[in-house]
Amino acid sequence: MEAAGATRKVYPVAAFNRRLAGYLARVRDVWVEGEVSELRRSDAWASVFLTLKDPQTGACLPATMARRGFDALNPVLTEGERVQAMGRLQLYEARGELGFRVTVVERVGAGDHAAALERLRLALAAEGLFAPERKRRLPRFPRGVGLLTGVDAAARGDVVAAVTTRYPAVRLVVAETRVQGPTAAAAIARGLAALAACDGVDVVILARGGGSFEDLLPFSDERVVRAVAGCPVPVVSAVGHEQDVPLCDLAADVRAATPTAAARLVVPDLDELRAGLERDRLRLTRMRERLAAAPALLVERRRAALDRAGVRLQALSPRATLARGYAIVRAEGVVVKEAVQVGPGSAIDVELASGGLGARVEDVRP
Question: Does pTM surpass 0.85?
Answer without folding.
Answer: no
